[in-house]
Amino acid sequence: LRSAIEANVMSGDRGPVRITVSIGAAIFPTQAMVPKDLISLACDAMENAKTQGGNRAAFLKTPEVRGETAS
């Protein structure tokens, strides 16, 4: 998905524009059972991807558990 998006070149006011994406992922139910907590973890992972230079997908390096989880 990331590569497909990057491969498209769009026209901008100042010339060609290449779009990239940073993706964060969290694992259900290992890291969180509640949607709000799962989304929060995925957002943290996305911020990590951006910090590492962007245009990448990332999980949190150390699985963090938020809220109630499955046993």
What would a concise description of this structure say?
The chain has 2 helices and 4 strands; from the N terminus they run αβββαβ. It has 71 residues and is of the alpha+beta class.
Question: How would you portray this structure in words?
Answer:
This protein has 71 residues and is an alpha+beta fold. 32% of the residues lie in helices and 20% in strands. The protein is built from two helices and four strands; from the N terminus they run αβββαβ. The chain has helices at residues 2-7, 35-51; strands at residues 9-12, 15-18, 23-25, 57-59. A two-stranded antiparallel ribbon has the order 1-2. Strands 3-4 form a two-stranded parallel sheet. α2 links the parallel β3 (23-25) and β4 (57-59). The longest helix is centred in the middle third of the chain and has 17 residues, at 35-51. The chain is elongated, with a radius of gyration of 16 Å. The mean pLDDT is 87.
